[in-house]
């Protein structure tokens, strides 16, 4: 849900405390059931576009570029609420996720857990990454 009032966007941006690299961590949580889907980073440009459009945009550190979630896979995120923590240095994005959030084809990136002393995948892929990303 885009923020159409430029003054409101500015107030939100001014409350954010970006780190030394100009980034802020963002936790994406499913708006419906509360499942934590992923963690990524935003820079000021990504946050401004996210606020203005309602579509979640991250900053890819590996590509050093904006990452519009779903631009290659179609697995788009739109936010229903953006919450800033008490220190202003972490954002919680409640999102409506189209498809899966993880590049492995799973709903959540948090699919590994210790089971009987071993790191184990506790959920199976719901989509084939080769199909999502055209590999």
From TrEMBL:
Its EC number is 3.5.4.19. Zn(2+) binds at residues 86, 102, 109. Gene3D superfamilies: Phosphoribosyl-AMP cyclohydrolase (3.10.20.810). GO terms for molecular function: phosphoribosyl-AMP cyclohydrolase activity. Pathway: Amino-acid biosynthesis; L-histidine biosynthesis; L-histidine from 5-phospho-alpha-D-ribose 1-diphosphate: step 3/9. Keywords: Amino-acid biosynthesis, Cytoplasm, Histidine biosynthesis, Hydrolase, Magnesium, Metal-binding, Zinc. Mg(2+) binds at residues 85, 87, 89. It holds the Pfam family PRA-CH. It is found in: Cytoplasm. Homodimer. Catalyzes the hydrolysis of the adenine ring of phosphoribosyl-AMP. This is Phosphoribosyl-AMP cyclohydrolase.
């Amino acid at each position: 849900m885009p923020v159409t009032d430029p003054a409101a966007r500015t107030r939100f941006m001014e409350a954010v405390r970006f780190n030394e690299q100009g980034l802020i961590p963002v936790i994406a949580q499913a708006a419906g059931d509360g499942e934590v889907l992923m963690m990524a980073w935003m820079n000021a440009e990504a946050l401004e576009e996210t606020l203005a459009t309602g579509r979640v945009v991250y900053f890819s550190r590996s590509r050093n570029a904006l990452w519009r979630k779903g631009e290659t896979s179609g697995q788009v995120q739109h936010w229903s609420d953006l919450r800033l923590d008490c220190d202003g240095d972490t954002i919680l994005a409640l999102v409506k996720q189209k498809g899966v959030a993880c590049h492995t084809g799973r709903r959540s990136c948090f699919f590994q857990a210790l089971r009987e002393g071993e790191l184990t995948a506790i959920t199976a892929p719901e989509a084939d990454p080769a199909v999502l990303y055209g590999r």
